[in-house]
Amino acid sequence: MKEVAVQFENQGQMIYGMLHLPDGGPKHPCAVFLHGYTGNRIEDHCLFVKAARDLCEHGIACLRFDFRGSGESQGNFAEITADGEIADAKKAIEFLATIESIDTGRIGLVGLGLGGLVASSVAATGNIKSLALWAPAALVDFLVERGGRVVKDPYAWLPEKLKAAIKKSGRVDVGGFMRGKPYFESLKHVDPLREMAKYCGPVLIVQGSEDEVTLPINSEYLYDQVQGRRLLVVVDGADHTFSSSQWENQVIETTRLWFAETL
């Protein structure tokens, strides 16, 4: 296995990542890892690193990268948007076409949290052969009833103090991450459920039963929209990032077996 630091550009900003290449063989399928909100290409307890190395050992190349504004990539976290991350994912897929040892007809996406929203949103337009969505965001828990109709409110779950801060200054510091209004506003016009319904490929969804970040109802709604082969796996007791060795091993093995069959 080789691990190669890579970079590519989107909208004048550099995106940095790591490419995992299996030994031998002229062409390899490839899984692109899309991290969550406030995450990076390593992810909590090195989940993405462990998963990428496992897949690579079984013949699947992997690309992990930081969205602009996250990790080591250029950009300001306070200015990230869902649209921007969708654009970054498309650029990553384009980048793979420049790697001679990658079979661009066998590209899969692994999306965690917001990365799951991104994966759902680009799958139908990016020549993607298979999806693995881990605790994916579908914005179902942002739907609220007002005046007799259901509307999408990305601010719905923010404490009133934080809502007031964003309204006043356009950004708010939460745990060292300066969260900006552009991100919340961008969620109003992305619809992963609609985009998922356009995708006809196989979809694996893995959800922790005790996830309090992306509620399980998101996975259930996404699952209902899948047009092709589908599998929903609920990891009993698991949180948002599957933060125990038992949970992460289950997620990685399930994903590896899925891609072995569908890529």
Mean model confidence by pLDDT = 95
Distance between the termini: 19 Å
Assembly level = single chain
Order of helices and strands: EEEHEHEHEEEHEEHHEHEH
Helix segment count? Answer: 8
Give the biggest beta sheet: 8 strands, mixed
How does CATH name the architecture? Answer: 3-Layer(aba) Sandwich
- Give me the Rg, rounded: 18 Å
> Which geometry do the CA atoms define?
globular
Number of strands: 12
Question: Summary?
Answer:
The chain is an alpha/beta fold. It has helices spanning 47-57, 82-96, 114-122, 160-169, 181-186, 192-196, 216-225, 245-262, and strands at 2-10, 13-21, 28-34, 61-65, 102-112, 130-134, 143-146, 149-152, 171-174, 177-180, 203-208, 230-235.
